[in-house]
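Q: What residues go here?
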């Protein structure tokens, strides 16, 4: 080899080494503290608490609120007052919407079932977050033949900008019954109670677990026997806020699937087989549509069982609809790599779909299989985890704006989130009441929110990876419980499996 050839070869080697070093340095610069993100993602739920806060409350700028919930009924022919103190405000307002609250609870419970062993000291905080919801859901289902679906008039609430501690808007309580059914909200509550019963049985609270399970069975029977949508029963008080667009059939099968997992009773398996034909949107999953979640959950319950075939086929279709390289893809990705679907609060899709990817990755490992998406694309367990991790990393800062979309994580994150309690001074700083319109100036100011809602994940950027840090842009700047809940489990996994 001549001198010139050797020099050219050395130059090529140096270029390759530099390129490899560059990749390594970039990879190292993007390593995230998943343990910190996990802790904050759970802490967020303390900022959403309603009712009497416990002495262990860590988000101390939040105070007690809504002590008369259940005292104002939309129909008082059946009872005068009920105790509906507690639960969670679902987002940046002060209404308790039980449909998305129950879904968030189901996802928190599923996170602990699948990934609780990786949570370390955060496991107890996750159990507290679940228990705060289930205590309230037990209250909401305490009267046979009645399920309380919502506390607070959303029209009055959304006309005000005030702290939950100061609320003077109507706290009207809405319920469904035999005469005015609500199968979706009732069956989702049943799913949440059943999933949570599994958690507390596993973590040494057997008596509470049994109470949750028995209530789940009762509420599911009510949801199934008196079928109908709460859209029709409660009308403009739930629509358009959390209108059930996908119908209630998916919630019924979802509830049965969780009861099957909790009890292993054959009647729930028979129910699923008889009703699964009503679940057709294999590519959908979230507070409104449980279809993909049903197929993933049942596939894991029946791993390597021939009876699982229709569920695994549809779960495989879901995976192929999500993978970026799949010829069957039905979602979109921004240039920066964030998963997108139509509708508001897009980050809910990124977190919920990532969770299903992680759960199904575990199924693929147990079944020792890959998914054939066609066109030479085969999805392995490792590939599913890679896609989920790309979504987590985008949320935490691996994006074109180098911005974390989790409040309090990293050096650059949303400062003006659409959240009443966060944007108004705490009672410690401003002890006098701020009435309905008294908070308007805090909403309109360009100053950062005075209280950090640590761990809150906002709706996120648009499909062009652009984000305007504005309270008024609620589609992108509002956090919700159902954005955070699925990410809890995913973060727990990557905390213990960074790669």
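A:
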């Amino acid at each position: 080899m001549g001198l010139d050839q050797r020099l050219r070869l050395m130059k090529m080697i140096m270029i390759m080494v530099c390129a490899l070093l560059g990749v390594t340095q970039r990879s190292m610069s993007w390593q995230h503290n998943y343990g910190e993100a996990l802790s904050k993602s759970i802490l967020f739920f303390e900022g959403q608490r309603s009712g009497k806060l416990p002495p262990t409350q860590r988000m101390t700028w939040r105070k007690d609120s809504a002590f008369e919930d259940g005292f104002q009924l939309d129909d008082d022919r059946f009872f005068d007052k009920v105790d509906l103190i507690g639960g969670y405000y679902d987002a940046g307002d002060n209404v308790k919407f039980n449909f998305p609250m129950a879904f968030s609870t189901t996802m928190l419970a599923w996170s602990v079932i699948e990934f609780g062993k990786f949570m370390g000291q955060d496991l107890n905080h996750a159990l507290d977050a679940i228990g705060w919801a289930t205590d309230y859901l037990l209250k909401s289902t305490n009267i046979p033949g009645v399920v309380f679906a919502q506390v607070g008039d959303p029209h009055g609430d959304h006309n005000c900008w005030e702290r939950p501690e100061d609320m003077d808007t109507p706290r009207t309580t809405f319920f469904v019954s035999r005469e005015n059914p609500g199968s979706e909200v009732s069956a989702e509550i049943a799913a949440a109670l059943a999933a949570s019963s599994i958690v507390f049985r596993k973590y040494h609270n057997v008596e509470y677990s049994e109470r949750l399970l028995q209530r789940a069975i009762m509420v599911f029977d009510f949801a199934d026997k008196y079928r109908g949508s709460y859209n029709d029963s409660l009308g403009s008080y739930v629509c358009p806020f959390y209108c059930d667009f996908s119908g209630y059939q998916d919630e019924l099968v979802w509830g049965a699937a969780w009861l099957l997992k909790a009890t292993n009773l054959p009647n729930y398996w028979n129910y699923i087989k008889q009703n699964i034909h009503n679940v057709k949107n294999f590519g959908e999953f979230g507070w409104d549509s449980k279809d993909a979640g049903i197929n993933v959950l049942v596939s894991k319950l029946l791993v390597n069982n021939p009876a699982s075939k229709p569920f695994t086929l549809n779960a495989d279709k879901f995976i192929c609809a999500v993978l970026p390289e799949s010829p069957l893809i039905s979602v979109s990705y921004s240039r920066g790599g964030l998963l997108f679907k139509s509708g508001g609060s897009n980050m809910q899709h990124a977190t919920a779909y990532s969770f299903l990817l992680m759960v199904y990755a575990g199924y693929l490992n147990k079944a020792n299989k890959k998914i054939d998406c066609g066109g030479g694309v085969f999805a392995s367990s490792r590939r599913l985890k890679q896609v989920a991790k790309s979504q987590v990393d985008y949320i935490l800062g691996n994006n074109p704006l180098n911005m974390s979309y989790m409040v309090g994580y990293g050096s650059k994150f949303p400062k003006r989130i659409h959240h009443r309690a966060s944007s108004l001074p705490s009672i410690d700083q401003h002890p006098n009441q701020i009435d309905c319109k008294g908070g308007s100036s805090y909403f309109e100011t360009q100053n950062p929110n005075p209280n950090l809602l640590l761990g809150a994940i906002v709706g996120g950027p648009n499909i062009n990876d652009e984000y305007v840090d504005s309270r008024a842009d609620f589609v992108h700047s509002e956090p919700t419980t159902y954005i955070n809940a699925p990410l809890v489990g995913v973060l727990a996994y990557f905390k213990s499996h960074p790669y």
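A: Context that may help when evaluating the design: The chain has one domain: 33-496. The chain has 18 helices and eight strands.
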